[in-house]
Automatic annotation (TrEMBL):
Keyword Amino-acid biosynthesis: no
Organism name: Deinococcus antarcticus
Database matches in InterPro entries: GDSL_Rv0518-like (IPR053140), SGNH_hydro (IPR013830), SGNH_hydro_sf (IPR036514)
Record's keyword annotation contains ATP-binding: no
Catalytic activity, EC: 3.1.-.-
All residue ranges annotated as the SGNH hydrolase-type esterase domain in the record: 9-184
Broad EC category: hydrolase
SUPFAM superfamilies from the UniProt entry: SGNH hydrolase
Protein name: SGNH/GDSL hydrolase family protein
Organism domain of life: Bacteria
Gene Ontology MF terms: hydrolase activity
Entry keywords, A to Z: Hydrolase
Amino acid sequence: MHPYQCFVAIGDSVTEGIGDPVEGFAQQGAHDTLALRLKTLNPELKYVNLARRGLLTREIRQTQLPAAQALKPDLVSIIAGANDLLMRRWNPDQFETDFAAMLGAFPTRTERLTMTLPNFSIPLGMPATMKARFERQWVQANDIIRRLARRHDALLLNVGANMDFHHADVWSADRVHPNARGYAQTAQAMAELLNLP
């Protein structure tokens, strides 16, 4: 394994690292935590987190992808889709087009890291009719993410299928963002995917 030289993250508020503090855990997002771990292997690592809260997948593609490409990363994290689902603007064809464009925008030598979406209906406690609609869309979104991750040989953190990521202890009070514990857990899972020591 060669230490990474440039790590770039694009996405929404989860990649940005928005969430509640938890005693005993650093108040930072998963990507910031992962970057610190990568810097122990390469102190010269360049790390840029371009993520901004509230963005739909097409907005991430439009506003963050060009800057990410210009940085020529050898590790890029691309996580998107939560706002598409939660803001009721779900368009699976548009999501697949935009997500595929982001995963495919980097040369094959660039390691891609992505993630399925958690089932927000669990922490949010949605009413039955809303839960049923959301979960249909959630399953569809994660099927798209998994398929595109395979196509582009991306490392996939399968949060959507892991109940450890749905436990109340890892969520902020808003039940939409991980808390500091949840981000630490996510960073550890990412590090394991990358086979970091």
